[in-house]
Amino acid sequence: MSSIPNKPIAGHRGHAPEIHAGHGHHDEGSFLAPKESLAKTVMSWVWTIDHKKIGVMYMVATLFAFLLGGLAALALRLELLEPNILVNGKMTGQLFGDLTLTRADGSSTTITGNNIYNRLYTLHGAIMVFLFIIPAIPAALGNFFLPLMLGAKDVAFPRLNLLSWYVYVAGGVMAVASIVMGGVETGWTFYTPYSSTTSYGATTLMILSVFVLGFSSIFTGINFVVTVHKLRMPGMGWFDMPLFVWATYATAIIQVLATPVIGITVLLLAIERVFHIGIFDPALGGDPVLFQHFFWFYSHPAVYIMILPGMGIISEVIATHARKKIFGYKGVAFSSIAIAAISFLVWGHHMFTSQGEVASVIFSAITFLVAIPTAIKVFAWVATLYKGSIAWNTPMLYALVFLFTFTIGGLTGPPLAVLSADLHLHDTYFVVAHFHYVMMGGTVMALLAGLHHWWPKMFGRMYNENAARLGCLLVFIGFNVTFFTQFYLGLHGMPRRYATYVPEFQTGHQISTVGSWILAAGLFTHMFTFLASLFGGRKAPDNPWGSLTMEWDTETPPIEHNFHHEPVWTHGAYDYDDTIPPRTREGEWPLPPPLPAGAKAH
Amino acid sequence: MSSIQIGQGGHGHGSPGHGGRQRSFEGLPHEHPKVASHFRSLEDQNDAGKLGMWLFLTTEVLLFAGFFCSYAVFRMLYPAAFHNASHHYLSWKIGFANTVVLLLSSWTVAMAIRSAQLNQQVRIRLYLLITILCGLFFLIVKIGWEYIPKIQKGELPMGLYSYVHGEFDQEPLFLSIYWVATATHGLHVLIGVLLLSWLLWRSTKLHFGPRSYLALENVGLYWHLVDLIWIFLFPLLYLI
């Protein structure tokens, strides 16, 4: 390339599109390129302030946490394959026997099999929530793609970004250490008095790990808010930003405003455990329900920290792979902000059985409001699909899975928001199924959509499409078999967090356990597909999906400083009607035929 | 991009009479603030730094909100015990002295920033020094006149409480909140003193001037917040 174009390459209708033939400039290598020696390569990751490397490091760490939490879930389901019943004086159906631990001073303690089950579901919940699902999308994919989508060279505070990763790892090590050092049997919600007086595990360490992880989340949140405010490329206004950026921005605001409250909550709880300050202990005049208020003031908004970035991914994936302008851009953008705002006003719906009646009525009413912005998004996505040119590839399949499972998750929310129904469903498998449909059927499906969508850009390799489709099918079937059954079990009164059950529930539990195996098979299929693509995958073109967002308008994988030239905003992120995608071959992504005179686009 | 911005020079380099040290044009560190490559201009970088600081301060407010919320709940549940405890265990005079000192330090840190904007190098150091001394005074009074006597008398949080003249069962709960809230606040004062000392050291290297005072301003904001939290803790714990 002799002439260096100054603006991003995006051909508009009527203009001859400028095409990047191959990889023109090689003044800078890919961010993944190894350095002169192995030691230097390692150090280039250890001390990196490149948001892309930090994003990849977050991705590896969070997916490892997903694996750990997932294995715990498989063990839980295995324990529930059979009820624990006495047959001829002998207990059958137990996966875990009693375990005797000997301390250094010679004294010993025995943990029953049921108590091991308690530790395992706490492990599963705490790891999945704090180490996987909260950071997975914003800190991994958000870190990598938010600056690219804005046309920025990095996030606003790169060193803070690196610090956030190390703090996350420190918190993760503390969490895992607490499991090795005796485990935690309180459930991931750490309700007092379970966590303050009756817990004998390494609860203090686990609580402090949540405190530490909070810092990591706050650092990421501050970074993203400032990045969106200050580092948008010239010409890009607020309403030109891709919807993933809007969703991540709303998430970052929740991270900044909610996380300090869990910080002070777990700090007070840790001090309570060590010094018995009595704030949560009714025997000393304290109030255990105050803990629940504090806890859910963070942990309910945290639910939207988990789901909002996933919704952002779905907006990108559906618009790109249906080649349609997103329906109701501003509605989708503002609904993210609305969800963030309402999320702070509904924490009491976790406490219908422990707080006053008037408070419950008010929280119940506000809770229904959440359904409005959420439904706006779902309708906008469906309307975007309408008459779109849908590609049946894995990202799109996962977006469709998301629409299906997330809608079930969403619609099973109102029965729990209704006070009379919730009194029956509270703490049953119905709740378990509901939040797995939202968290796994929503966030994890969106994460998988995003991983498949952006994988070629991140690592420069295509994955085997058919293997990924097979994985998607297994995940879809396995997920629904596992969790739909649990709605049924919950409606019939199966309480959550029990290692055993009455024999009537056995069929349901067995179906659910078999489903967990199918689900695991699907997820491992994805793992191997991704690993195989790294080592033997076809080289990915710069813009394999013909997308219009900015992250595709650079090399694959991106160069260290993201773009060869400072990008300028020239075309809408979703203008598929009249923009030829950047960095694609001529005729690869033809524009739709012009509409007849007088016809309206929508 | 950034080099253009830096090259445009600053305000009042040539004009005399700003007090402080006047040197030749080049060579003063504060006249060439570094602009990181991902920012388009020094203004953008400063704005980003300040916005980041405000967001961080928001998280601090929410952190302390936990104490204020607990205080409100238990004050409402046990008004007599809390009223009695506040007058019995705490001396408003000590609290008042610390309030005055912190308010003074808020003014001096603001003046340190103003001095940087006016390029009055000596005054930057003077005001920072006074601020640091105020912070230390606060901590010494807190520890020497409150914490240590309280530990000796057993006026401690619930689990460690061994004071024998308490009148209400819930008085230790008041002390729990007092200890946890003031200790957390004291830790913030200590961090503030350390940050201010770091600024003082930097100011001797002439890092601050009309074009370069973001760090001063951000630490100043933090210091104001620490002050503000005390302004709320003082009446709630000592007066009412």
Keywords:
heterodimer, A: 602 residues, mainly alpha, Cytochrome C Oxidase, Chain A, two-stranded antiparallel ribbon, 15 helices, 59% helix, 3% strand, globular, disordered N terminus, B: 240 residues, Four Helix Bundle (Hemerythrin (Met), subunit A), 0% strand, elongated
Question: Can you give a write-up of this model?
Answer:
The complex is a heterodimer of chains A (602) and B (240). Chain A is mainly alpha-helical. Chain A has 15 helices and 6 strands. Chain A has helices at 38-46, 51-79, 113-150, 158-180, 203-230, 243-275, 288-322, 329-342, 357-385, 394-411, 413-417, 419-425, 429-459, 465-491, 506-536; strands at 11-12, 85-87, 90-92, 99-102, 108-111, 579-580. A two-stranded antiparallel sheet of chain A has the order 1-6. In chain A, strands 2-3 form a two-stranded antiparallel sheet. A two-stranded antiparallel ribbon of chain A has the order 4-5. In chain A, helix 2 runs antiparallel to helix 3 (113-150) and helix 8 (329-342) packs antiparallel against helix 9. Chain A is globular. In chain B, helix 3 (79-89) packs across helix 6 (171-204) and helix 4 (92-117) runs antiparallel to helix 7 (214-239). Chain B has helices spanning 2-7, 42-77, 79-89, 92-117, 121-153, 171-204, 214-239. Chain B has one domain: Up-down Bundle (Four Helix Bundle (Hemerythrin (Met), subunit A)), CATH 1.20.120. Chain B is built from 7 helices and no strands. Mean pLDDT of chain B is 87; it is low at 1-25. Chain B starts with a helix and ends with a helix. With 240 residues, chain B is mostly helical. The radius of gyration of chain B is 22 Å and the shape is elongated. Classes of the chains: A mainly alpha (602), B mainly alpha (240). Chain A binds chain B through residues 147, 152-158, 160, 218, 221-223, 225-226, 229-231, 256-261, 263-265, 267-268, 271, 275-279, 281, 284-287, 290, 294, 561, 566, and chain B through 1, 36-39, 44, 47-48, 51-52, 55-56, 58-67, 69-70, 73-74, 77-78, 157-160, 169-170, 172-173, 176-177, 179-180.
